Give the backbone structure.
Amino acid sequence: MKVRFLFALTLAACLGFALTAQAAEEPIKIGIYLPLTGDNAFGGQLELEGVQLAHKEFPTALGRPVELVVVDNKSDKIEAANAVKRLIERDKVVGIIGTYGSSLAMAGGEVAERAKIPVIGTSCTNPLVTQGKKYYFRACFIDPYQGAGAATYAYKTLGFKNAALLVDVSNDYAVGLANFFQKSFTKLGGQIVANLKYQSRDQDFTAHLTEIIKQNPDVVFMPAYFAQGGIIMKQARELGGKFVLMGGDAMDNPDTVKIAGQAAEGFIHTTFPYSVNMPNMSPEAKKFTDSWKQAYPQKDPNVNAALGYNCYLMFMDAFKRAGAVEPEAVTQALAATKSLSTPLGMLTLNETHDAEMPVGIIQIKDGKSVYLGEIAPD
């Protein structure tokens, strides 16, 4: 009887050890939902490559391998919601990274919130992405801050007193950013002389631009995505528009100049505080840049790649501080993120789960992006 009891204890101990060892070897699954096809594919692909670069550098957490599960949200709101549902229900991820595009993030965020799975947004800047959410965070600042930064730079640094707006009314990002620019610009003392609207699929902006030219603004703020933004630039210059064109972070894309050509000269846009050409690069930014060039020698990194990289770092930091990968513990750790050293500077999440960082300013000069520096909005 005693021998049987000792055998049972030994067997139980062996089984317990085997289960513990198996658990330790099981991968930690992080889901990725980004637009890898459709209108936003270029930005989504860069962010994915940033995540993959960070994963290559930090492939384990808490002694376990990390596995990335990637789903294409196809630049579509319904697909974004379905992608998050699939990652949670089928792939059993403990956290999710994504997405490029605020409207896509809002669609996916509702699903994640109900399932109580933490998500870190890459470049989704609309305030509604995290508003009222416990489980949604982001590695970027929000549009009120960015819009105020653009307005402050236009009014105070450049001395512009009259501005026009050209806005895609079917895009949450564009509408929000334009509204925040307008609010800040007029508060500073500037005047909005025209506020014209278009739809995402529009290709002909001559009527809009003709009306804007009549109003003779100093600057036209157009928070477009790079493809339409490039077309607007070309048509504006063809019509003889002399005003300065200004946009938001969605224009931080190498293809902006390819599409606009010479019309991009002098274009200014806000961005997050990283550029491959920025002076006085921090050690973390330099490390990221060097690692990127080694991994992807055919193309330069942009801020989207850096944001994807940062999202992965944020999860690694949260896992370490939580000491576990249980979603609730990770959520609490993410909410307490402070002074995390990243390529975009020291990252702290505020009470609304948004990253605190300065607004970067870039201008196209001689066909190249030149990082002019940062600005703190008024």
Q: What stands out?
A: The chain has a mean pLDDT of 92. Residues 168 and 198 are 5 Å apart (CA to CA).
